[in-house]
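Q: Here's a chain of 163 amino acids. Please give me its 3D structure as tokens.
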Amino acid sequence: MTRRELEILFKSHYAPMFRLAMSMLYDEDESKDVVSDVFASLAAGGMTIKSDNARGFLLTCVRNSCINVIRNKQVRERFVKLYSNKAEPLADGSDDSLMLNELREYIDNQLSPLSRRIFTLRYLHDMTCQQVADAVGVSRVTVHHHLSQSLEKINAYFNNTKQ
């Protein structure tokens, strides 16, 4: 996709894409991140798009990205509570301190230093992906990639060990 084609898509479809993201996420920064990530994937060549169904394709990409964000929110919220020592007891009465220690150990030992830093800045310091990218000196796409991988690893680990 040429730069000119990308500009045309951006100018003609950004507003409806952003409105859809806002209607699903209710967060301006997250909505901007989702829409920006879709365009970043287009620019990086990660997706191809046909001009006859561009609107539908782009809105579907935004919808799917928003669903992923929503799915990960519970994990993120739980992580923040656990990692910041503000955890409430689990419904089954088990002690969160064991899970907290296991989570911290997993993050410290299993995530790369860059992933650990990005993860901590995003979820503990509540920075946007762009702010994290600026602080770490990488692109927003790289931040998104590291966050996605980290969440997948943490989800997989805790889903496998807690069954």
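Q: Can you summarize the key feature?
A: DSSP finds seven helices and no strands in the chain.
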